[in-house]
UniProtKB/TrEMBL annotation:
The chain crosses the membrane at residues 23-42, 54-76, 106-129. The keyword Transferase does not apply. Keywords: Membrane, Transmembrane, Transmembrane helix. This is Repeat protein (TIGR03943 family). Residues 81-93 have a biased composition (Basic and acidic residues). It comes from Microbacterium phyllosphaerae. Residues 179-270 form the DUF1980 domain. Residues 81-101, 247-270 are annotated as: Disordered.
Length: 270
């Protein structure tokens, strides 16, 4: 009689494991896909990845949702069925299930639960918290980590760059790598960024530049002749001015006008 009652006592734990597996797989993937599509449709996905990658992320989210819908047509627990025959030799299964769990299996279960809780927390945070650009503090903490070398750095070094479309990142490459700085003296610029302090009584115009996503974001900074107390740190401004070459060969921006503005919808350069 005991052999026939064991499958019923194991039904609830098995169902719980199946539900947990489905949430960790299909559930989390579905939520992330919905969030991705929502951000893509509202134009806020640019706060996390470069514009060139938005279409790929949205396409992947659609494919994931289609797969999730299809998987929901399967009976609960079938996604973990690898084709084994579970319909025979119940006596052996009972003995195996009755054996105490090994420490390794207990550790695996604990790791899975911990990872599931963390992943669920991240997904819930993505749903609850509004998308936001990277903080000014992060940009300031990364200043000086490496020499600014952004798009067009090779052209700058060769002295053949067309500066008419340069942003803060491009000019940061000029300031860092140009060997003939006099060639850029007198160039007019219109640049947008936020104010960050320097060690001297001056300020930098700063912009975060990303290649693929915010994980690889690096700050591009340009020295601007502005009174350090004129603007608060983090204030977004539009600077119209001229590039000036100093006697020692260094470059800086001499502004004709500095206008405070709100943070732009797309705060990054690429």
């Amino acid at each position: 009689m005991s052999d026939h009652t064991h499958p019923h006592t194991d039904h609830a734990p098995s169902r719980a494991r199946a539900l947990g597996s489905r949430w960790l797989g299909i559930g989390l993937a579905t939520v992330i896909s919905v969030v991705t599509l929502g951000l893509g449709l509202t134009g806020r996905l640019n706060l996390y990845i470069s514009p060139e990658s938005v279409w790929f992320a949205c396409a992947a989210a659609v494919v994931t949702l289609v797969g999730a819908i299809w998987s929901c047509t399967l009976p609960l627990g079938d996604e973990g069925d690898h084709g084994h025959d579970h319909g025979h030799d119940h006596g052996d299964v009972s003995e195996t299930d009755a054996a105490p769990r090994s420490p390794r299996r207990a550790l695996a279960v604990a790791s899975t639960v911990t990872g599931g809780v963390i992943a669920s927390g991240v997904v819930v945070a993505a749903l609850v918290l509004p998308p936001a650009s990277l903080s000014v503090e992060l940009a300031m903490s990364r200043v000086g980590e490496q020499t600014a070398l952004f798009a067009g750095a090779d052209d700058v070094t060769l002295g053949v760059a067309d500066t008419s479309t340069f942003g803060v990142g491009d000019w940061a490459s000029v300031f860092a790598t140009a060997t003939n700085t006099a060639a850029y003296d007198g160039k007019t610029v219109t640049l947008t960024g936020f104010v960050t302090p320097t060690d001297a009584d001056e300020v930098n115009l700063t912009r975060l530049v990303i290649t693929h996503c915010v994980i690889d974001a690096q700050p591009a900074t340009l020295p601007v002749t502005i009174d350090a107390g004129e603007f608060d740190t983090g204030q977004w401004v539009e600077v119209e001015g001229t590039i000036k070459a100093d006697a020692d060969g260094s470059l800086h921006v001499e502004p004709n006008s500095v206008t405070p503005i709100d943070e732009p919808q797309d705060p990054y350069e690429y």
